[in-house]
Amino acid sequence: AASAPKPLPSSGPKSLREMPHPLATSSSEEMGPALTPSPDLLLPRSIADKDLSLPNGTPVDTSSPASSSSLLNRLQLDDDLDVETRDLFVTVDDPKKHVCTMETYITYRVTTKTTRAEFDLPEYSVRRRYQDFDWLRNKLEESQPTHLIPPLPEKFVVKGVVDRFSEEFVETRRKALDKFLKRITDHPVLSFNEHFNVFLTAKDLNAYKKQGMALLSKMGESVKYVTGGYKLRSRPLEFAAIGDYLDTFSLKLGTIDRIAQRIIKEQLEYLVELREYGPVYSTWGGLEVELSEPLEGVSACIGNCCTALEELSEDMTEDFLPVLREYILYAESMKNVLKKRDQVQAEYEAKLEAVAMKKEDRPKVPTDVEKCQDRVECFNADLKADMERWQNNKRQDFRQLLMGMADKNIQYYEKVCVT
Amino acid sequence: MEDCLAKKMEITVSEAEKRTGRNAMNIQETYTAYLIETRAVESQSEGQCAPVDSLWRRYSEFELLRNYLSVTYPHIVVPPLPEKRADFVWHKLSADNMDPDFVERRRIGLENFLLRVASHPVLCQDKIFYAFLRQEGGWKEMVNETGFQLKADSRLKALNATFRVKNPDKRFTELKHYSDELQSVISHLLRVRARVADRLYGVYKVHGNYGRVFSEWSAIEKEMGDGLQSAGHHMDVYAASIDDILEEEEHYADQLKEYLFYAEALRAVCRKHELMQYDLEMAAQDLTSKKQQCEELATGTVRTFSLKGMTSKLFGQETPEQREAKLKVLEEQIQEGEEQLKSKNLEGRDFVKSAWADIERFKEQKNHDLKEALISYAVMQISMCKKGIQVWTNAKECFSKM
Fold first, then answer.
1. Smallest Cβ distance to B385: which of A270, A280, A417?
2. How many helices (H) and strands (E) does chain B have?
3. CATH number attached to the domain at B168-299+323-401
4. pTM beyond 0.90
């Protein structure tokens, strides 16, 4: 049921072509609209013509109407987008160590290939470190508070326990960072975020970061989008359900994480014993004449089993566990978003009540109230849409993950069989 | 294996039963009795089933039989009995003698013992052995009547001989070293294997937890639910499969244990040789000294220092008649001694010959058996891996349907 985009009379969402390039506007302008219409359909909205914006000046993403049918359309188009009309590809690779006087750190190469008009060039290649990814994530959270932002791998590592510069650690992190960017790339709204664009393209990211800070202090507004202290009476059913689901989900994942760790531990202990087992056959072989060959054979086989088992444990540690942990982090950040949503709704309800109490109809208040209402509805819609997408992706991810685990085990057994 | 009993008769230890009774000291005890069934083979070819004879024996009677055989045939590597108490257990198996699994494995071990004896060209002809299989009552008395206990060499004597023997046959010395090392390496192997089994058990069982979590998780999922649930089921199957796998492995361990105990039997033969050799050397030494004494007496010279010589110097020499008498006694003793030495020499050589023949037979048996055991162990491992592949492939399929 997709129809052609209709240009709307308001300053609201414009079609792709009409949108000025975010970076084309000079830096003297205020941080321009981070408004990113969904690249697919612009559908008739129930809330029309209002200049809706968030406290820090960035307009609310109104391209996500609250009606469910439009939600459905959006999802269908998302699928199409994924399959055929991909126009942005991002990769993270090539980790390099940098040694400076003050510190040592790792940078990763971020390569972008795109046909989108928002980008000046079709290809970019920049170097970024973890700090930069962290900055990006924070920016995304600020500018798109109604959306679910994918998680980053853990920031802090206990020194002495994990070697920050070990190959395995760096590789695990690289994969997670790659995943992070790919998830943003796939997101119909987030991928058009201005900060994301800069992250992918700017030669000197630090300059941009400083600029952003300066502008904000000019505006004199707090960066964080926080509605102060409103208490929500009750969460609507569907969001409560999501909340419950996330709670159980994190719990189960946590359990699986523990089980997997336990298995790896047991496997390593098994490995220790196997390592002693093999050589005994060898010793015995030394005693015998006729039997020495078969005994040596058994010893060698056991040795091979040890190697195969080691590989299995390594793979599980490097590939399986991090993904589990990432989803737990994801669930946590999602719960936070839910809380924020609650607060928005609380504010709305409080203001609504306040208005109802007043006899006078002050012009500002209705707008205020309506603003809140819009916020709430947008929030809800975005959240729902994102949840759907998240569920889909999660399903795919886990499918892959568990299949991978099964595969690894299969490979292990096959290797052992061969020996 | 010409004419051995095993070919003429089917022997099985078919059942085991718990019994209570009063022992020699009139104290009540619980023990296990084993049913031995025998049936003549020839009549089967006529298409008729020969009658099965059976009787019950307990472990201590088996022990008595084996002791008798070891003493009566010291040049034979006598097959060992299965262990009296459960050893080299990994944590799941109990060390309890009454445990049904242990009893079952012992039953198999005892049957194996009887078959080994019955297939031995020398041992199978022994009447006591035959009576053990066929004669219910009065067997114990029969064994004791043979007086074999008297023939048994004391441990102390054997130990003494081991230390003092000067010229044992080199092959036996080597064999003794071999059996010591074999014993040490197999015990080590069995101990580590038990630990390996323990750990493997742990790995498999923890996977069972996946089953539970997947099940719980599937309850909150929509599309992923079915896939998770069925995958969880496979994890349960995986966790359960370890029990059978390790049960089979116990059989392999038992095969190794048999040869662990066989090492002891080898050592016993070597000890017997050392004892005989020592005996021989002592006899020869005795003879030499007597001959010397004779010479001294006859010639009147004292060649070596002796107390007799000193006392005779101090207290005067003997009368010629006394000397004559002594000389005569000595000459008789020398005569006896020379005959004894001859027969001991012969005995010794015979022993070495027949012992070595049996040892060669044993070596072949050992190589053959252990090779087969190793092969079947490898087959077991492969089958275990194949099962693993199966389970994970199934799980993978479930995941792919998520």
1. A417
2. 11, 3
3. 1.20.1270.60
4. no
